[in-house]
Amino acid sequence: MAVVNSIHRIKLLQKIVAWVMRLWVALLLFFGSEIVLWANPSSRELQDWVLIAIAYLALSTLLLDVIQRYRIRNLSGLLFVSGLYALLASLIINPETTLIDVPRTIATRVLGAHTFVAWMMLSFMLILSDGPRRKSGVAVPILSAIAGFGWGVWVRYFPLEADTTRAVVSLETMLGRGVPVIFAILVLFIILFRNTKHISADDLRLVPMLRFGVVIIMVGVFVLRFDSTFYPDAAFGIVTSLIVFAGLVVWFQAQTQRRTLLDRRIPIRPLFPPLIVLSMTSFTGLGAVGYGLPREVIGVDLLAVLTGMFTIFGIVWLPLVSVILGIQAFQQQVRSEDI
């Protein structure tokens, strides 16, 4: 009897830790989309926040399942997963800002800004979880500083240019929204670090019934938050077509014999703690610096640089990475035939 109870406790702990992992990733995605890109979080009502929180958790649950189920093993595959997230989020969470001017904002905001930032947050998750074995971990504070600087510039000037908001966001508001989320991310990471020894990456895969439930939840959130004014006529067709395309690319990448990005990082082996603290400090500190700078520095429009980068990224990454993956698949097929 004691053995049976022990087994039940272990299984329960595995489920709890797996859901904490999903919550952590949801918080990272939330931070990227809502805080870094500033989807006007100050304007949301409490009821809307509840639905949005559920949506982020459902999306993170689905993404982790996709990464593990379809054997995502490199950053190019992770980029398609990030694009899949951005497309789904544009329909469910932020249509008022991402679909306001289709097809322009699909390229600049959905495939551009939101995909890039989601890719950045998921990559940060991987580096943070694999620190001691990667020399690249020392670059995290530098990258965090650059990202923080961009965050400050974006939050300071983008709301003045956005299609839906015209209010100035104060530095106190920016940090008041951002710092608590960063702290929550750190707390969840500490909890995971102490407990992921109890799970494997395959524990993040969903059984069919749960996967169906996640889809139903996302559809439910979409229906409850639906406002026809946020969805231009062409939006559904374009976004759903891109979702199908990204999903097919992810599906064709599946290699049952390969280890995934999560296999190599669960249990979590955290980055050296001082580097984590330095990364978070540099992000918020450079965020404040970026916020305080004038929009033009030595003749360079800082906001234009960011929007230009997001636009180029949004236009280029999908066809470019598709071609690269196609070439890799062809080479692999040739090698298999030679064998």
Provide structural commentary.
This protein is mostly helical. It is 73% helix and 1% strand. It has a two-stranded antiparallel ribbon with strand order 1-2. A hairpin with a 2-residue loop joins strand 1 (296-297) and strand 2. Helix 1 crosses helix 2 and helix 1 packs across helix 5. The longest helix has 37 residues, at 302-338. The mean pLDDT is 86.
Largest sheet: 2 strands, antiparallel
Mean pLDDT: 86
Describe the strand arrangement of the main beta sheet, using strand numbers: 1-2
Note the total helix count: 11
End-to-end distance? 53 Å
* Proportion of beta-strand residues: under 5%
Q: Given the helix and strand composition, which structural class is it?
A: mainly alpha
Using DSSP, what is the number of strands? 2
Q: What are the segments in which pLDDT stays under 50 over at least 5 consecutive residues?
A: none
Order of H and E elements: HHHHHHHHHHEEH
Structural shape: globular
Helix content: over 70%
Q: Determine Rg (CA atoms, Å).
A: 20 Å
